[in-house]
Structure formats: C-alpha cells, structure tokens
Design brief:
Aminopeptidase, globular, alpha+beta, 5 helices, 2 domains
Amino acid sequence: MAMGEASLSELLGIWVEGWASTRHYPVQDLGAFKTVQLTDKSGDWEAFAANPNEQEFADLASFIAEAPQRLLTVLTDDLPAYRGLAGKHSLAELAADQELMIMDFEGKDVESPWLNDDELKLTTEYEDHSATVTVATTDGTLAARGHVAVAHGYAVFDRIITEPDFRRRGLGSFVMRALTAAMSEHDLDQGLLIASTDGQHLYHHLGWSDVSGVLILTNPGNLKGGSLSD
C-alpha cells in the first residue's frame, strides 16, 4: 500500500471532499469528522471516520441514533473490533464489502484514449475542478459513464458504471482512462476511489492498490445506503 505521507484519516478526508463535490452534497464537520448530506437519497447525513477510538465511536453512534436513516462509514481493516462496537451501541451492519483504493499516476498513460467503436461516442463535460465522462450510442443510449473531481492534489473517481448491455467491451477501463486524461492539466500524482466488490477486480487490473476496508453502519431497520459507488 503506497499511501505516501498521507494518513488514512487524511486520505478519507480527501476522498469525502472529492466524492461530495461530484455529487454536490453539502459537507459539515462533526468534531474532527466529516458528515455529508445525501441530498439525492435519504436527505439525511452520513458520517465518516478512520479507525475512531471508543469515545469517538460512541459520539458518532449518538449522532447516527438521532435519525433512522443516518449512516456511519468507518474505514478500518479491523472489522471485528468495530462490529463489536456497533453491537455495543445498537448499530446494524449495512455493508462491509467495499474498499478504499489508491493509484499512483507516475509513469501512467494520461493521454485521451481512442474509442475504437463507430457505434459509440465519448463526451467529456467539465465543471470547476471536476469532469463527467459519458459513452453513448449514436442514438443516445447510455453505455457507460463516470465522474472525477480534484481534491487536495488527488483525483477522486466516482460512479464508474457500465450499463448491462454494454459490459465486457472494455468500457470501464476506457472511462477510467478518459477521466484521468480529463484531469491531466491539474498535474495530479495520485487517485482515490471506493470500489464495490465487482469494481475492485477492474481496478486491480488497472494497477490500483487496496488501502482500507469500509464498514457501513446504520440504525436497525434501515436497509438503504450500503453503496458508496452508486
């Protein structure tokens, strides 16, 4: 794991800022931690922490308990310890199959890729320090898309999606290369993303490395919000 000089907590803060930026989510501080309002989902708040101690976890759990749909995402590779704390504070596990990943761009190809398919067209749209890439057919049917934002010298990738009818054509890799090229003018050294189990296979193939496990907790009875990449 090549995290450079950044700690896990710092990497999480950078990822949260970039992730929230691509989705236009409001961000607020909760003590030393970040919370994000999921305006396009529950409308409530998700808190983020990297390996919080027992008192910090208790404070975060109290915040989550204030509303049924609130979420707590903990970055850790010690899942048993935080599952124990979750049980102690009556929180339920929503997901534990995602991974924070990092990529070192040094020596990597950042040129705009060539879409070798006459049926498909690439579109890149820029907004402030972010970009959206879409691949669609000539009649406008969406094939694949993805987002990226710059945060503190990192490229934060989000919502890399290939539609079911267009899978196994290399479009996931293509979108990632197109997004990296879109951010090349910012002279970025590294990228960050949180990947689902399926996404991790693609990103490992592209040279990304695992940084930390991701545990998402919520109140009992809430079954929504388990994915950070959708």
